Amino acid sequence: MTSAQVDQDRDGNEAVRADGSEGGEGYQRGLGARQIQMIAIGGAIGTGLFLGAGKGISKAGPSLILAYAVAGVVIFLIMRALGELLMYRPVSGSFSEYAREFIGPFAGFVTGWTYWLFWVVTGITEVTAAASYMTYWFDIPQWVSALIFTVVLYGANLISVKLFGELEFWFSMVKVTAIIGMILICAGILTIGFSDAGDTASVAHLWNQGGFFPHGVGDTLMTLQMVMFAFLAVELVGVTAGESKDPKTVLPKAINTVPWRIAVFYVGALIMILSVVPWTSFSPGVSPFVAAFEKMGLAAGAGIVNFVVLTAALSSCNSGMYSTGRMLRDLALNGQGPKFFTRLTRSGTPLVGTTVSAALMLVGVWINYQWPGKAFDYVVSFATISGMWAWIVILVCQIRYRAKADRGELPQSEFRAPGAPWTSWFALAFIGMVIVLMGIDKDARVSLYCAPLWGLILAVSYLVLKRRNPEAAAFSKR
Predict the structure, then answer these.
(1) Prediction pTM value
(2) What's the confidence (pLDDT) of residue 140?
(3) What's the whole-number mean pLDDT along residues 398-412?
(4) DSSP state, 29?
(5) What digits encode the pLDDT tens for the residues 28-43?
(6) H/E element, 144
(7) Angle at 127 between CA 125 and CA 131, to 5 degrees
(8) What's residue 164's pLDDT?
(9) Fewer Cβ within 10 Å of end Cβ, the chain: N or C?
(10) 420: phi > 0 → left, psi -120 to 50 → alpha, else beta; which?
(11) Of 168, 143, 136, 184, residue with least CA distance to 243
(12) Under a CB-based contact definition with an 8 Å cutoff, are residues 161 and 30 in contact?
């Protein structure tokens, strides 16, 4: 029996049916098309672009544009694979649900807890970063800002899913407006020639400063791990499936915007910036947006970018609060987590799961304050490999689902991934190549050291779970 055939969860709440009808596992369908679209757009824009691109530019030069374009194609394949699964059965906590159904209960257990940890770690780093950005304007202790941000976002997520959607809508709007503004300014400089950069701006900067591959193809390949990290959280739209008002219509539209989002916000923005400012002017640790504003002679640029990066960090924290509670509840509903995580508020938000996750984020801020050394860096680096695990699971599940659907064992999805399963296999191979590159890079391989340790913890925990509750390790509860 597949979980799509079950209409009630363990608490008797009406579950999300395959047709996307109302009553999503006790959740309220409070996310409209406008909010889902902006969550999808904002999920692909974060500090990986606003800050991290500086390191990539200094390492690969203009060829970083190609790295983002190629990785963007792979991200689109992953999202179309996810879309096919979502149209088959739109549920909150979709990754662990699909893993449980198409791979096995242990895969669902690992996926749910790993994705939860990914967002907790991301939330820790982003709320700390947001607090540090506040010191640009105000001379206040960093822990005070971190506490305020965490409490405000925690409260917003408990009030209703609609308020979460509104916050994410406006966070994403700020990021989108900033990038479009930068593109328009750069276009004006290239065509009209205003500002301090007007006399030297030229598209020829893309190939005249040592060529398009100034350090060779090898260094460009080594940036792929950073590029893929920048795209982490694009899959968040899948977690919203159980609370979307019209998932059958809204989710495919949101997923199909991935190509132009990447083309405009990553490829387009970098082409414009590197045409106005030669890539040799950038350095690691400095936002390319800040550097570009300074080259243009726009004094307010640094403050504007600081505000945008602050918004990006808060957006990531907001998403973390949202997704962690739902992942914990999904695990609990299937007997793979403590039962008290199933509790919902009257507005349909997972109270205990969100509270525990928010508390851990605060503990992380305290750890960062007390011991800001290598140990914390090791924990942070785990976010990359844990985020890519969700992508691997999505692709494997889509391949297995398509095989069953083609045999007539399951209904066909209304939103089939083009070229699948071959495109899914290609995406898996690409992710495998990125993991190998992470192992080669001494700065990134710490992520691979953390993964076996986390896997061992999960394996032991699963054995304990299997002994105490054999049912939870045998089949999906839904």
Answers:
(1) 0.85
(2) 83
(3) 94
(4) -
(5) 665 666 667 667 666 6
(6) helix 142-159
(7) 115
(8) 77
(9) N
(10) beta
(11) 168
(12) yes
70-92: burial string, b at 16+ Cβ within 10 Å, e else: ebbbbbbbbbbbbbbbbbbbbbb
Residue 129: name the closest of 269, 300, 315 by CA.
Answer: 315
Contact criterion met (CB below 8 Å) for 81 and 394: yes
- For residue 203, give the nearest of 214, 189, 219 by alpha carbon: 189
State the Cα–Cα distance between residues 331 and 43, nearest whole angstrom.
24
Listed residue (379, 376, 333, 373) closest to 353, CA to CA = 333
The CA-based angle 36-156-306, given to 5 degrees, is 75
Neighbouring CB atoms inside 10 A of 163's CB total 16
pLDDT digits (tens, 9 = 90+) for 201-229: 788 889 988 889 998 998 899 888 888 88
Cβ atoms within 10 Å of 110's Cβ, excluding its own: 23
- Rounded to 10 deg, the angle between the 374-406 and 94-102 helix axes is 50
Amino acid residing at 470: P
Q: How many residues does the chain have?
A: 478
Q: How far is CA 260 from the centre of its chain?
A: 17
Q: Give the three-state DSSP class for 473.
A: helix
Provide CB contacts within 8 A for 5, sequence distance 6+: none
Backbone dihedral region of 439: left (phi > 0), alpha (psi from -120 to 50 degrees) or beta? Answer: alpha
Contacts of 282 by beta carbon, 8 Å cutoff, 6+ apart: 54, 57, 58, 288, 291
- For residue 271, which of 53, 71, 43 has the smallest C-alpha distance? 53
Q: Which H helix or E strand runs over 43?
A: helix 33-43
What is the rounded CA–CA span in Å between residue 80 and residue 85? 9
**Tokens 């999960």, residue located:** 458
Query: Which residues have a Cβ under 8 Å from the Cβ of 364 and sit 6 or more positions away?
Result: 120, 121, 123, 124, 125, 127, 128
Asked if 236 contacts 87 with a C-beta cutoff of 8 angstroms, the reply is no
Q: Identify the pLDDT of residue 6.
A: 34
Instruction: State the DSSP string of 232-282.
Output: TTTTHHHHGGGGBSSHHHHHHHHHHTHHHHHIIIIIIHHHHHHHHS-GGG-
Distances (CA, A) of 115 to 76, 84, 95, 320, 391: 20, 20, 9, 10, 10
Residue with tokens 């300074």: 294
Q: Looking at residue 126, what DSSP letter applies?
A: H
Identify the residue with better confidence: 406 or 4.
406
Distance in angstroms (rounded) separating the CA atoms of residues 305 and 178: 8
